[in-house]
Amino acid sequence: MKVLVIGSGGREHIIVKKLKESERVTEIFAAPGNGGIAEDATCVPIKDDAIQELAAFAEENQIDWTIVGPEIPLTLGVVDAFRAKNLKIFGPTKAAAIIEGSKDFAKAFMQQYDIPTAKYQTFTDIEKAKAYIKQEGAPIVIKADGLAAGKGVVVAMEEQEAFDAVESMLVGNRFGEAGSRVVIEEFLDGKEFSLFAFVDGENVYPMIPARDHKRAYDYDKGPNTGGMGAYSPVPDLDPKHVEFTVDKILKPAAKGMKQEGRTYTGVLYGGLIETKEGPKVIEFNARFGDPETQVVLPLLENDLIQIIEDVTAGKDPKLQWKDAYAIGTVVASKGYPGAYEKNVTLPDLKNDNKVYVIHAGTERSEDGNFHSTGGRVLLVASIQDTPEKAQQQIYQYLEKFDQTDAFFYRKDIGFIK
């Protein structure tokens, strides 16, 4: 079986590695891939938003299945383009991917189907947005309506910070079209967790929960990022909250999307928070989350391609999980999530058998060394029988990055309070 993975980040690298475990998969392509992915698959120089080129490649190369990693191609309609050519692809259609593509749609949808979430209002007018912030007070959450690469959310602890955030989006055009509308939400207090599910129509098959660390620096300080590390499972997460999330959030979401004429197939990601009233949705994503996927998929015992075939055929894939802990820490370019230097040579990345290294923003240069191409460069992870053992292996491996000031990483990932 030939499989194409669309995307170029850490999430796509772990999907490729998981596919390599399958006895049924004989050839893997990645478009466009990255330096690390090139060691595990054939990289194809097609950008992930070049929808027609991707479909033509899959057709010409007789690809049996395509798996979509990032949100941009989904919201642009890559699934629709592939289906038009009778090509098998795993992911939601453009109509269904709106659950991530528009925060305003997602909030209105949750309200309509009684899915618990923070109260909110949507604005295009700066003065009305500021008046609402004054009325509600801080802390308060400001979100760009559209896709902003994980950076379109500001948790404003002070009123002025909230004013600055709406100003930068609505007037300063910080996120372009994505920020031309803002969703202003009530601040929810509690511990966050992520829960993915394989979905086809009303059938929902939940994975194991994970928790990611969004802030750039230790002890959850600094700006929000796309994620600085993650761990799975989540020992302090109440099992009743997982059950509630599946029954009252994920299943009603799948059913509601079908009722809306937006039948959902693919991975549905719930970004959730445990509040005093129970779990509430912070956001939905229309694909595997990054970096949580890098710690969830390695714990999955099943063959990924078999799961996709079962789910899309209406069969229960009977998910099986390792009895272990996976923790992963992101190595980022200094300055991320702001401006950062690219093309910095990385230390020697020889694997040892106690960690696995996932590439997110790398290329291999002609001299054979890897160099950085993005803000999040790598994720170093370990699977062990206790969180402490996993942390020990990861941070021992990461010592090689302490010799350079071009990169940084959090030293508290997976420290479970």
Describe this structure in words.
It is globular, with a radius of gyration of 21 Å. The model has no long low-confidence stretch (mean pLDDT 94). It contains twelve helices and 23 strands. 48% of the residues are buried. It has four domains: 2-93, Rossmann fold (3-Layer(aba) Sandwich), CATH 3.40.50; 119-186, ATP-grasp fold, A domain (Dna Ligase, domain 1, 2-Layer Sandwich), CATH 3.30.1490; 191-312, D-amino Acid Aminotransferase, Chain A, domain 1 (2-Layer Sandwich), CATH 3.30.470; 325-408, Alpha-Beta Complex (Glycinamide Ribonucleotide Synthetase, Chain A, domain 4), CATH 3.90.600.10. It is α+β, with helices and mostly antiparallel strands and 417 residues long. The chain has helices at 10-20, 51-60, 71-76, 78-84, 94-101, 103-112, 126-136, 159-171, 239-259, 293-296, 304-312, 387-397, and strands at 2-7, 27-32, 42-43, 65-68, 89-90, 120-123, 140-144, 153-156, 182-186, 191-200, 203-206, 211-212, 215-217, 221-224, 229-232, 265-275, 278-285, 325-333, 356-359, 362-364, 370-372, 376-384, 407-408. Strands 12, 15, 18, 19, 22 and 23 form a six-stranded antiparallel β-sheet that branches. It has a five-stranded parallel β-sheet with strand order 3-2-1-4-5, sandwiched between helices. The N and C termini lie far apart (44 Å).
